[in-house]
Task: structure prediction
Amino acid sequence: MPTDNKYLFFLGCAIPYRVSSYEVSSRKILAKLGVELVELPEFNCCGLPLDPVSHEAMLVLAAKNLALAEQQDLNILTLCPGCAGTLKKVNKILKEDSQLKQQVNEHLKEAKLEFKGTTETKHLLQFLKEEIGVDKIKAAVTKPLTGLKVAEHNGCHVLRPKQYIGFDDPEDPQTLKMLIEATGATCLDYVDETECCGAPSVGISDKVALSLARDKLNHIKDVQAQALITICPFCHIMYDTNELRIEKLFNEVYGIPVLHYPQLLGLALGLKPEELAFSDLRVNPSRLIEQVTETLNTQ
Result:
């Protein structure tokens, strides 16, 4: 059985190059929570980008990662919903289809690997809920973010497809809200919380994508949220990179910083903004940091 508190850290392809602030802040909070992360350079792409071109190639790539984890006798922790969903799906499919499993293992023989189906993969959101637990997170908070009001954005893929992910309701998600409130902050409800950020539409229509993001930012602004909290690297990129662009394009004013959840939790755990890569954010978070600092000084 996989070892407790020790997990293989699967970063995927995009995060180290495009959203390193998510990786940095995640490593910091996981260390604070007593989680040991194990690096495995042999990991390859999860396979998701190849699925539209070659489903078989996607299966083999994902199965190779899973087989490597089985060799280490460790479960996988990933920050990317796409990676988590792909590894979860392939794990379930191959365990339930012995013929397909045999076909995939024929390919894996070349790398002297065999998929058996003895490990599991969890996205950070599921991991924090199930492996750490809300109560333990609350107990670890040393600087409660009392008075801070934020909105959350789960994204489309962190909870979908439900038959493979299965730890929260994608139509009425509660996990991220509970984790936010464990920091002492208030998580505000707003219109169309579960709507897409628009990122998947960028390749088809930039205007449609930005319009979708604008709608969500307007709804978040309506409830006077002081920040938007994300758990998906691509959703974060969509909002943080494009908020200033949307303001200019549509003559809007938001000033809503977009934080990775580990950055929010890190502040509550007593970590400093510079330790959590706040300087990498495109939308200036200085007002938010000032308010948090003032609140902590009065506690």
Observations:
- The chain has a mean pLDDT of 95.
- The longest helix spans residues 55-72.
- The chain has two domains: 6-124, 142-298.
- The beta strands are 6-10, 36-38, 76-78, 121-123, 149-153, 186-187, 228-230, 258-260.
